[in-house]
Structure prediction request, 435 residues.
Amino acid sequence: MTMRDSSTRPFAFIDIHLCDPAQSIDGTHTVLVADGRIRAVEHHVAPSLLEADYDLIDGKGLTMLPGLVDSSVRTGEPGHEHEETLASASAAAVSGGVTTMIVKPETQPVIDDIALVEFILRNAAATAVNRVHVMGALTKDLAGEEMSELRLMHDAGAPAFTNGRRSITNSSLMRRALSYAKDFGAIIVHHTDDRSLSGDGVMNEGEMASRLGLPGIPKESEIIMLERDLRLAALTDGRYHAAAISCAESVELIARAKKAGLDVTAGASINNLTLNETDIGAYRTFFKLSPPLRLEEDRRAVVDAVANGTIDIVHSDHEPRDVDHKRHPFADAADGAIGLETFLPALMRLVHSEELSLMEAIRSVTANPASRFGLEAGSLSKGMPADFVTVDFDHPWVLTEDALRSRSKNTVFEGARFSGRVLSTYIGGREVFRS
Prediction:
């Protein structure tokens, strides 16, 4: 069976291992695609019954997943296109199985009004191969002083609002934002970092920071800000998402808030799931991240929270930085690492090590982010867009810098060995990437 032009004829993957947490499917199925959408998912269909109407593709030995939904992607467009454009981020995304990405407003100018939301969506439609959504800036110019026109941006297509990595210290402003956004169903996404505590810190506070002679960031800077936010969410009955939690105490706070019935979810970076502070090694600046890499016991607590559903969403935390920002002494380098291309392979490390089941891992990057942000994505149920990836989970490979499609090369996984690779990516039933 060979693949023909999927843009002109319906096609079917025969006997492929399908993992779709939204449908609680994890087994061998036949998937039928027509007119850019999923026509049917069947346990078994004899190929002879389909040959007249479908191009047939042998799926044996492969796994099909819903296309990944990455809820934390920064690009440099507009203003810093030398670091990343929508087009280059999109190319990186589909090579890593990300069919839908939500870009953040940390651009120049900041995406803080309806015209800029429309600009991003229009440029994405013209240049990106995957589906692009945009978070609006919670405050004007991300300054944390004046709330942006949230309703207008929401009506233009922004599903959520964030202040990027600049936490809102003004509690009254955060209260108003949560209360106002609730009226039209929008979500406030917040990076929890009390800058008066983290100050000039550059890595997790503790023995490792002392040994390296670097100023530390106490985990209390995350915990205190998160606890404040959760109390404000309770006060306003607002829709709140903690952007990236990184320590065991934060997990406990989220669990308590959910038990109390608050409309609260939490995310975690793939970096904090797969790495800890010892990976910084000899001042490796690509490992300077926000939130910082924590202790191994914190990493395990975050992984366990993904497994039990306390943490809902895992994201790549894609943060492109050029050499002018990273080739500095550790204390002076900018935060952030790219992650779109290594998002799924890094996640699979946790599956191979049996820290997460395949269903737990894939739910956190498909069904959960799609549901939380109200996107038509994250599932391969009948009638959904045919956005999916095929993967060989046993394929070994090594990441090299020259293979990266992102314009920036600041990956924490350079030279890393992975097992599992995206073989093809489809969006709307059209193949947009083949390994």
Summary: The longest helix spans residues 220-236. Confidence is low (pLDDT under 50) at residues 1-6. DSSP finds 14 helices and 19 strands in the chain.
